[in-house]
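Here is a typical sample entry:
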Amino acid sequence: MKATINVVAGIVWQDGLYLAAQRPEGFPMAGWWEFPGGKIEPNEPREAALVREFQEELDITPTEYTFWRELEHEYDKYHVRLHFFHIHKYSGELKSLENQRTAWVDPKTPPTLEFLPADIAIVEALHI
């Protein structure tokens, strides 16, 4: 049986655009785009994991956010359960602390970035 990994992911909004991050070299699935976030630690609330991950990866603290939906995806070696949040406001200045590239994406235009397979349904839901 595959291990299940619980993950939080944040959809950061600014001026009608959402933030995408590219997985850096040396990380699993490097080069793919994703919504920033990461693993939920054992016994850690989802909201605490969201705040911690954004502080660790992008040096910002989400201050206004809402849970949106949960999604599950099977990869070859593991099963991932993603908890997506819309982040409406944050404090701090966005910095790539893990040397990941970031891009602001317009949901009114067709997606052009190559997102992780687990995130494709979310990208499709955002691009109306």
About this structure: The chain has a mean pLDDT of 96.
